Amino acid sequence: MAILSSVSPSLRAGSPGSDAPPWHTLPIETVAASLETSVAAGLTIEDAAARLRHHGPNAITERRRRSALLILAGQFSDFMVLVLAAAAVLAGVIGEPQDTVAIAAILMLNAVLGFVQEHRAERALEALRTTAVASVRVRRGGVTTVVPGIEVVPGDLVLLETGNLVPADLRLTEAAHLRTEEAALTGESQAVDKLTATLPDIHAVVGDRRNMAYKGTAVAHGRGAGLIVATGMDTELGRIAGLLTKETGVRTPLQVRLTRLGQRLAGGALAICILVLVLGLARGEPPLPMLLTAISLAVAAIPEALPAVVTVALALGARRMIREHALVRHLPAVETLGSVTHICVDKTGTLTQNRMHLEAYWVNGTASGPPPPLARSGAWTLLLEALALNHDVHLTPGGGPVGDPTEIAIMQAAATAGCDPAEAARRHPRLGELPFTSERACMTTLHRIGSEIVAFTKGSPERVLSHCIDRLEVDGPAPLDAGNVLQQAEAMAAAGLRVMAFAFRRFGGMPKIVSPGTVESGQTFLGLVGLLDPPRAEAAEAVATCRSAGITVVMITGDHAVTARNIAARLGILDQDGEVLAGTELGSLDPAELVRRAGVVRVYARVAPDQKIAIIRALQSRGECVAMTGDGVNDAPALRRAEIGIAMGLSGTDVAREVADLVLLDDNFATIVSAVRAGRRIYDNIRKFVRYAVTCNAAEILTLLLAPLIALPIPLLPIHLLWINLVTDGLPGIALAAEPAERDIMRRPPRPPGENIFARGLWQHVAWVGLLMAGVTLATQAWAYHAGSKHWQTMAFTVLALSQMGHVLAIRSERESLFRIGIGSNPWLLAAVALTVVLQLGIIYLPGASSVFKTQPLSARELLICLALSAVVFLAVEAEKWLIRRRGLYRAPAVTGRPQSPVGAGGGRTNRTQAG
To answer: Which residues pair with 138 in a beta bridge?
Structure first.
């Protein structure tokens, strides 16, 4: 049956949880029978062509891409943007085209920025497609041929050798010293030894299916062959692409807060507009001017500078972060860092260096770390020779070493100890070898040293010790206590090290037969070495800083549990009693139990890509705001699901970088701390603008609303409202985006992701300061009006405008006095305030401007009165901050350096607002 109609459902699935047979549990003969192919000859050419028509090309299917026009149109779907568009139309209706142009310019700026960001994110799957293999060696009809990677089909017999990319998911039929690099798919930092034997565990995770090779991984060593069991979207890589398509992410806390703010302001503005219109008409004001005033007030009530301020704040923060080696791809996500409560970290390449390193020796019965002692003799001398000679690493001219990461680490350890591998190979050429096999679990090389032939063997401690009859000490051979050596090897393995044993044997001449029986017997034990992918030097400090800032670090890795525990303990992520949850156990948990366990588990090991998403969802269900770091293809869906995805710029894959919101250009986990600081600062500055703009708008509304109630004429004309709205509110408000970070910014806990933007006293501030500002304005108007001054409207206008300047200077900090933080510490704001004051005086005293803005020049006495009354608001806000510092007004959070709850403790925030 050429097209496999009887088994095609399983072939189309090819992944756990589907109808696919568990290929790794089936004997090779059964796999071949299910695929209707030959282990020796592969498919016939005719069968291959028929299957290609049936199954389609071996490619990652790209989801339907949105057109550029749809992406651009989507930038105008936000509620706040729609409100501002309506405000632009209203401004045109009341005869203020300059306002229409200004608002339209703001909307277009935001649309262009959003379009560029989304267009780049849409390229993620295109990057995934670049992992396709150009050509593949297959055996069809018994003949080896080369075919395009996109044309291989289920049942094809693929031939592999060192350097090849695996073109599809294979059930291996041959594995001669075969090792594959699977870090991008599973997170495993070491090359994986492959075998052909049947594996019994049906539930084995991808990293433990050693008789399989997967699409997108690379052959690091050896050669092999395998039958294709899945192609295209049915492969493990295809499953990740499918997850990536499904996970569209969540809206950031900033987006949620600003949408709510826009909705509330728009509703309130409409109600107040109608109320002011009714009160004015009831008082006998002319209908048309009253209608224009009401419409102007509605426009003024909405802070149209808010999108510009947010854009400027995020852009300035992003520019600073580039200088600190962090590239922002999605601007709103910068602010999200200020809400992050959990950072889920992929171990390999993020917390660790993504390269093996020799960490420990055990020689002559004594444990030591690198480098070896300077005074060397006996076992030390021969062990370093073995490290330098017993490997298959190639040294490329002008480049680095090429080969298995473990062997590279061993060779580099010899070089660091002063035994140059290149010189050793020249002096002691290799005369023979027994390559590594998984069955023997060791490798032997033979070299001429002086007049003798020496065989060096390395491998698993159990297997190497079974070859040995004694051990080498300073004075020569000594009795071997194999049990003691194995106990030491187990202790090193428990510390998360990959342990290898070394032994040797001398021959008078080259053995006639080089076989395990003749060479790997009667050997002398030299010592043990322990290898590890070590933590980055700066990672422990960065983890500690995260904890002091109230952020929990969670390790999620595809590596083994013992290794994960060791690295986590070294970095302070896990204490001695902390729990490590393995992927097999995680897969058996129901969602509710996983949500509960997520509160206490800090390390997850042997985790599959879809399980990473499950972990993030569980944390989000507990009310946490989650950042996810990673560098591999396997991390991409989780990066998209998290509130903020952080990818590695140097070692990361294209897929991870394209999906991420933040890219660490130096692959330094510590850079995240700087990013968190920037995120908190940006949110602080946006909050300051909201405090400033909404308070000023409240003052304008209350001024117009209360004037008729106390028998005063309408104090402000439409042109005055729009001037205050665009100039007095706009320039200083935008300059707030450049406000420096406050001193306590990294000693606060993360703010709750669902926190209302008006929390922690902001709404109380808006209410009383808005009322005070309106009261001072109305008091000025009442005094001048009843005193018979013709300038009463200009004085009220001036007091309201200058009061806002005092207000913006006072709110630069929610706690600290302006005089403590320094008047000149934000020169942009100081310049904006000065410019606004000059412009305000200009429209009063310049003849042409005063006629346009319907103002009258004030006398010196009247101007001094306006300046004095305008200072009332500044002094009142300074008094408010004194009460916050001394009396705990609004119950402001105390500044402490207290770390979060102990490692491994439970807890979680509630009331998280999530959309999308």
So the answer is: 145, 158
Can you give the pLDDT at residue 887?
78
Cβ(826)–Cβ(812) under 8 Å?
yes
Phi and psi at 288, nearest 5°, equal -65, -50
Q: Is 201 helix (H, G, I), strand (E, B) or coil?
A: coil
CA–CA gap between residue 83 and residue 789 (Å, rounded)? 39
φ/ψ bin of 201: left (φ > 0), alpha (ψ from -120 to 50), beta (otherwise): beta
Question: What's the token pair of residue 465?
Answer: 């010790």
What single-letter DSSP state applies at residue 165? B
CA distance 753 to 252: 9
Percentage helix, strand, coil for the chain under 3-state DSSP, each rounded to 5: 50, 15, 35
Measure the CA–CA gap between 392 and 95, rounded to whole angstroms. Answer: 81
User: Residues near 507 by Cβ (< 8 Å), separated by ≥ 6?
Assistant: 446, 452, 453, 454, 455
Q: Report which of 312, 273, 263, 217 is spatially closest to residue 80, judged by C-alpha positions.
A: 263
**Distant-in-sequence, close-in-space partners of 766: CB < 8 Å, separation ≥ 6:** 691, 694, 695, 698, 758
Adjacency order of strands within the sheet including 662-664: 326-328, 662-664, 644-648, 626-630, 342-346, 552-556, 603-605, 580-582
CA distances from 789 to 648, 779, 784, 801 (A): 68, 14, 5, 19
Residue (of 205, 179, 183) closest to 348 by Cα position: 183
Q: Which residues of the chain have pLDDT under 50?
A: 1-18, 117, 120-122, 124-133, 249-250, 892-916
Question: From CA 215, how far away is CA 237, in angstroms rounded?
Answer: 6
- How far apart (Å, rounded) are the C-alpha atoms in residues 227 and 532? 33
Judge residue 451's burial from the number of C-beta atoms within 10 Å of its C-beta, 0-12 exposed, 13-18 middle, 19 or more buried.
exposed
Pairwise CA distance, residues 361 & 386, whole Å: 13
**Residue owning tokens 């995770």:** 205
For residue 446, give the 3-state DSSP assignment: strand
**Number of neighbouring beta carbons within 10 Å of residue 112:** 12
What distance in Å separates the CA atoms of residue 568 and residue 588, rounded to the nearest whole number? 24
H-type helices in 174-331, by residue range?
183-186, 236-246, 253-283, 287-300, 306-323
Which of 644, 868, 714 lies closest to 284 in space, CA to CA? 714
Residues identified as active-site: 346
Nearest CA among 2, 6, 9, 5 for reference residue 37: 2
Closest by Cα among 599, 610, 660 to 905 = 599
Q: What is the residue whose two structure tokens read 């297997």?
A: 463
**8 Å CB contact between 354 and 653:** no
Cα(783)–Cα(908) distance, integer angstroms: 56
d(C-alpha 622, C-alpha 811), whole Å: 34
Distance CA 786, CA 769 (A): 25
Q: Residue holding tokens 């999906």? A: 659
For residue 429, give the 3-state DSSP assignment: coil
Residue type at 315 in one-letter notation: A
Q: Report the candidate in 494, 434, 504, 498 with the shortest Cα–Cα distance to residue 460.
A: 498
The pLDDT tens digits for 163-216 are 788 999 999 999 988 888 887 677 666 788 899 999 988 888 888 899 999 998
pTM for this prediction: 0.64
Specify the pLDDT at position 321.
81
Of 500, 601, 498, 608, nearest to 552 (Cα)? 601
Task: Enumerate residues 6+ apart whose C-beta is below 8 A from 371.
Answer: 416, 417
Residue 219: its pLDDT value, please? 86
Token digits of residue 765:
């501030």
Tokens of 136: 């593949």
Cβ-count burial of 3 within 10 angstroms (0-12 exposed, 13-18 middle, 19+ buried)? middle
Whole-number CA gyration radius for the chain: 35
Buried b (16+ CB within 10 A) or exposed e, 773-805: bbbbbbebbbebbeeebebbbbbbbbbbbbbbb
